[in-house]
Amino acid sequence: MNDLTELADRFLKTCAARGIMAATAESCTGGMIVAHLTDIAGSSTVVDRGFVTYSNEAKMDMLGVEPATLRAFGAVSAETAREMAAGALARSRAGITLAVTGIAGPDGGSLEKPVGLVWFGMALSGRPAVAEQRIFDNRGRDFIRRETVRHALEMGLKALAV
C-alpha cells in the first residue's frame, strides 16, 4: 500500500467512524482524490460522489460557484475553493467535502499565481467552509497533483479529528 492509499484508507475509516459520507470537488486534480478513495474496497459506504469541475462553467453549473466570485478572484482563489466545498456539501449527501483548485502546470502560471499554487476548500456539515493555500515546488504536473491529493486528505483528516 503506498502512502496516498494509506491516507485515503485512513480518511475513509475516519469518515465511517464518524458516520458521515464524503464528496470531492476537484479542478486541478481532475478526479484524482475521489479515484484514490474509490480504489479502496468498501469505499461505497463512505464516498457519495466526486465533482470534476475543470472549467469555470462546470464550477458554476455543478457547484453553484458565483460568476461574480470567478470574475473578482479567479478560479484559483480562496473564495472559489470555499464556494466549491460549500456547493459540493449542498449538492450531495456528504458530511464532509474536499475541494481543490490550482495551477498544476506546466503552463498557466503568473507572478501572482505561480505554477504550484493550489487553494484547498473543506466543508463540514454545520460549519462554514474554510480554505487554505499551498504553493508546491514546481517539480512537474504529476508531483503537484499528487501533493494536492495528499494535502486534501490530510486536511480532511485533521478536520475530522476535532
Automatic annotation (TrEMBL):
InterPro entries: CinA-like_C, CinA_C
Ranges for domain CinA C-terminal: 6-157
Gene3D superfamilies: CinA-like
SUPFAM superfamilies: CinA-like
Protein name (record): Damage-inducible protein CinA
Species in which this protein is naturally found: Mesorhizobium hungaricum
